[in-house]
Amino acid sequence: GTPQKYDPTFKGPIYDRGCTDIVCCVLLVIAIVGYVVVGVVAWTHGDPRKVIYPTDSRGQFCGQQGTPNEYVSPPVCGVPVEGARAFTCGPSASSSPTQICVSKCPDRYLTYLSAYSSRTPGELEYYRHFCVPEFKNLQKAPIEVLKDKECPAMIIPSTPLARRCFPAIRAKKGVIMVGNETTYDDGRGRRRNVTELLEGAKKANVVLETRQLAMKIFEDYTVSWYWIIIGLVIAMVASFIFIVLLRFLAGIMVWVMIVMVILVLGYGIFHCYVEYAKLKGEAGSDVSLKDLGFQTDLRVYLHLRQTWLAFMIILCIVEVVIILLLIFLRKRILIAIALIKEASRAVGHIMMSLLFPLCTFFLLCLCIAYWASTAVFLSTSNEAVYKVFNETACQFSGQTCKPETFNTSNVTKLCPDAQCLFAFYGGETAYHKYLIVLQFFNVFMFFWLANFVIALGQVTLAGAFASYYWAFKKPDDMPAFPLFSAFGRALRYHTGSLAFGSLILAIVQVIRVTLEYLDHRLKAADNKFAKFLLSCLKCCFWCLEKFIKFLNRNAYIMIAVYGTNFCTSARNAFFLLMRNIIRVAVLDKVTDFLFFLGKLLIVGSVGILAFFFFTQRIKLVQDTAPPLNYYWVPILTVIVGSYLIAHGFFSVYGMCVDTLFLCFLEDLERNDGSAEKPYFMSPNLKKLLKKTNKGQPDA
């Protein structure tokens, strides 16, 4: 590309600019209107209760719509039914997966015949809770009750999970048991082994274990949320103090940060070695991770020497890599420090920029909330579909039916034992046929709007920091409210350009999501060529997404400064960077590396503090730490939250450095330091690069 020429009228971000990429702006508005229409239609037809509440065989929600009972018991209260949804509970386990809403799950083994003939008062009345609601005649012969499918032949002890009853299967000393029994009466005079229930309940048991783990984690959050918030506040204060100190002590802080990261990693290596040595000779500590397998109680892994050895090796590798990078890049670090100092001054003059990521975060939360709620309503927009179930041969078996008119139809005349029962949720209208298209549009719009929000934040920050750089007398020549001015210019003139850039990125991201979905579906297939092709495509589109993000970021800076359209800005930014590729590769990446070290220091320090506190190793507050099931729950929460907070603060700094760097390159091409073409860069940068403004003293 051609280097920029001197323009005597250019004094920083252009205020007299026009609207750019109007077509894309119109497309975005139309797409948003369509997205709102899709949301309204989904909210009209959808019913999220289908996700939360179970339904009986009539399609009614348990605990809703006149069915006060809360749980749905599985077909024949624990007997798996082929083709049914895991389990059903009802009059027949062989043909009709009848599900009934019950007030509580069965807690004992019982057959209808034994309940009918029992001398225990209330036994039959208890059993009646698991029969169809219309069953009232307790004196009716058992054979007639079972023939008419009014009650299940048997019930077994069950456990409630997500408002559904699942067999209470457990293992005791390697023996599979339901309740306290290893066999059960199937209600037809035969004894069966409970292992017959195991296959049907495998997934249910995994869910039960997951639920138990989730409940323990939830309990940990309820007793530690206060301390988690304190930890996040400490991370926020540390990030803010760190950035404020960079304004005055950038060089010292960077070197202190580097030393502190090395020391933190060194302590981590020492701690892992101490734990590794402490476990020597203890029973069970030499078991390998492979032999142990997956355990829901993660504390088990901390009693293995191999776990601490793995941690120590990983930390040693990270330590060596960081030290080698620092040795080879030590000269470039000085240049990066100068950029950080300049960015510190810019942020110091525009302190509101540190709070601007909260605005971006809020808008992203709105996008996520709208996408998630629309997806739920679309997925629950299907209608209840009823089908004919019967035990004997019937030509209408499996056909759809309507419960309201089923008893008066020809089906009951030709197939007396047929029943019209709820099968699944579906639909045959045009709306239901195109639900997958609407879901795809929902995902696409989420990516487009999310990228647009991020782009809006980048252009706003770039405009504010560019106004700082191109102020000849800093900060006297800066506008009064640079951040709000940049935000107004971005929305008023460049909504179309932001929509264009975010649209390109959204298309690539949707393609990546589609490829991931195809890869997931092809995992079971034995087609090596297809898997190889998918892997290549995933790699290519991952690289393409990274490149587009890099190009968009620099294009937005050019848009904020010059007010040109997206394509022109992207081309100018790309050629400008290519003309200075060595500076880009070294300075930009060294700066990113230093920001990464800053995040690592904040997250590592807060994480270590949280570890010592929640494991009750700080004697001063040993009694204050709450009792926990898993102490890693609040620790991981604090670590992840600290990283997100530090990332938010440093993202502002990163955008500031990128903007100043691009403006700095433009300054070098436009100006030569003469009285007619003076440099706009700060005295420190001029001194670092051995540049001067002729005839003007550097203050």
TrEMBL record:
Pfam families: Choline_transpo. It is a multi-pass membrane protein. Keywords: Antiport, Cell membrane, Glycoprotein, Membrane, Mitochondrion, Mitochondrion outer membrane, Phosphoprotein, Transmembrane, Transmembrane helix, Transport. The keyword Chaperone does not apply. InterPro entries: Choline_transptr-like. It comes from the Eukaryota. Choline transporter. This is Choline transporter-like protein. The gene is Slc44a2.
